[in-house]
């Protein structure tokens, strides 16, 4: 019996660990969230306790008096074949000497600071280890007070040698506040939130949807981390760039969540959600305008546009005498008063006059004879309003033609206003603002024609859009002309819509085309061309100006090199604002983290062509063909300019301007509305 009792005790003692494991497993399975929280808490405590390698550490020695421009040396006991690594020098600024510590010196057991001071009574106040990156100090990791140093003076140099015990504690504090801990804690926090959300809020969500949402969320968090800690140079920005971008991102995420939930709403609530999406996009557009207007300069051509407006204010000519239009002195440094008798150079624009006639009769500009008084801020607001009408019209086309899927409306609205150059150009005086609206009007008419709505409104929209664009900007007019001819021609020849041209509605729209025909016919008779050039009207000024490079100063660039240059700047101009000196982004790439979405907008038309249904895909292909015909023409003009005048650094000549690109793809964006209606 005693033997049996001893055997049972032994078996119970051996089984106790297994019983404990089973009980712990049962407890964990019934309290998963608590168990996960305990595990991550232990990990966080371990990260907080364990010292890690420091990064981005500056040593900042502060003295009790000015040591400006005096030599200060930090000497470490680094044992390395290259002994110079243990000696780092700094030049005093004010009462401070600063070095960026070489990582090999982080583990040094001694630190001696030597200063060749003119005043032998200089004393060290403290040495601070500061975490420094992106041009600013993030925190002070550790500090050595004056009491931790022994003072010696030899050969005119004062030495401050740190005690080994104090320096050891100093190095330990630096490791305790290593910046690596921030990244580790961020990763642990993301994993914790991911696991807890899967266990609780999203426990019933399909695994694939949850995985996709997790990837998107991780991407957003990575972008925010990159924005606040990875992007350099933003600390000196003129406005709170990081705060604004972060706020916009939060709002967009909330809108995405709302739109995703709205698919289960009633029809009226879905419509309201779509309207909210467009209101947000409109507010975002106006916000961009305010930022550009307040904080940034405008295009170099704005002084030429302002001079053109002033000329039309005085002369009010439907067909201007381009040889008489100049850039006036006050337009270069605007003060609010222009005298047409005080010019500095020839005005190279040569654009049709519609935009300038409209702006010359707007509030904010008056004249007495050749003296013009204007308010530049008011004119910029009015110019922006002309382009904003086109954006609102795009929103209307999307709202009335895209299927009532709120997320599609949000995507469409953001695609319209996301390319940065669009709103930037609209923020100043530029005929591209009116051209954008005119192109949108024509696209509206083409969409109605595709829908077989052969009414007076349809033909008037096509006629007004084409005529007004041709009277605003020639390249934009070429685009809409090609699009209209191809689409209408295809409809008439292949879809048995020839009866449309026999309608009285079409005949009523014909007189509108007389205006651009008469304008360009007058130019041909007067100048022998449809757009008078700088070279033809002012050859002497052209050859001595910035648009011509003498043969002796031209670089050697082959045709293949120029093609690479052209394409690189073409894509860059879509994602950035290359000609604004204060917001250039030379390191931006088309497929970077903060530009990939805008690049996708550029490439989306190709996807639509492949995915659209048969009839619609033919019309979209014709629209794409129309824009690319003009773009190829622009490319050929750029090559000719490069070969004859070596114009390779100026975007309006060497690379299709961003505004023209926006007009090209305005058609594509609105085609999304038709595409979604057909597929939805």
From TrEMBL:
Signal sequence segment: none
Presence of keyword Cell membrane: no
UniProtKB keywords: Membrane, Transmembrane, Transmembrane helix
Keyword tRNA processing: no
TM ranges: 26-50, 178-196, 208-229, 241-260, 272-293, 383-400, 407-427, 433-450, 457-490, 510-528, 587-612, 619-636
Protein's name according to its UniProt entry: Uncharacterized protein
UniProt source species: Bifidobacterium ruminantium
